[in-house]
Amino acid sequence: MRYAFIRTHKPVLDDAPYRSWDSTEEYRSWCERNLPDWLGYGRV
Amino acid sequence: MGAFEYRQAEEIRDKFAAHGIRYLFLGKSGAILLGFPDTTQDADLYVERTTENCRALAVALSELGFALTTEQVAEVERGKDFIQLKNGPFDLDLIFAPDGIERFEDAWRRRVDVEGFPVTHLDDIIASKAATNRQKDRESLPRLRSFRTWWLDQNR
Question: Fewer CB in 10 Å around end: N or C, chain A?
């Protein structure tokens, strides 16, 4: 597990130093509206 | 913002322990700490939402090098449901109300200790990922469930 943490840039998601949401549902919805599909944050 | 590395998980563990913070590694970072062979880029922390715990958390984050504004400190202190930090030495998601887990106390009781890391039980990690129903979680779940069978057998 020592080497399991890696870094790649995730567009949009990594482009702000701080974000917060009043509910986890708001966070999920924000991800669906704003992140590229290929990041996999959309619900199926 | 920067890459999250194992030694930074150790920094979190040691700093949070020094402040007596009740939290759990959740998500893939938690699964990896349990031995799941995969990679991740940040850490998801499930934090108990009590006034004292959240205040200690804000102090600990500052000591770790997170540059929080007064307003952001206030959000941490009140335990806003989901906070994403990329303004420190590594990326961190603070989750006070994860999908699929009803109460922190229940998850805390089921936690697993790995080298001093408090980790959410694999069943709770799986329940949380199943509840989100995201594409990336759907991709991980079959292998996580298979790992669970092996892991439970090893920890009998």
Answer: C
Are A41 and A31 contacting, i.e. CB atoms less than 8 angstroms apart? yes
Cβ distance of B81 and A21 shorter than 8 Å: yes
CB B22 within 8 A of CB B111: no
**Phi–psi pair at B63, nearest 5 degrees:** -70, -25
**B109-154 pLDDT, tens digit each:** 999 999 999 999 999 999 999 999 999 999 999 999 999 999 999 9
* Minimum CA–CA partner of B138 in chain A: A44
Q: What is the rounded CA–CA span in Å between residue B70 and residue B66?
A: 12
C-alpha dist (Å) from residue A18 to A13, B9, B152? 10, 20, 37
Check A18 against B98: CB less than 8 A apart: no
Q: Do B82 and A23 touch (CB under 8 A)?
A: yes
Question: What is the helix (H) or strand (E) element at residue B140, kind and residue range?
Answer: helix B135-154
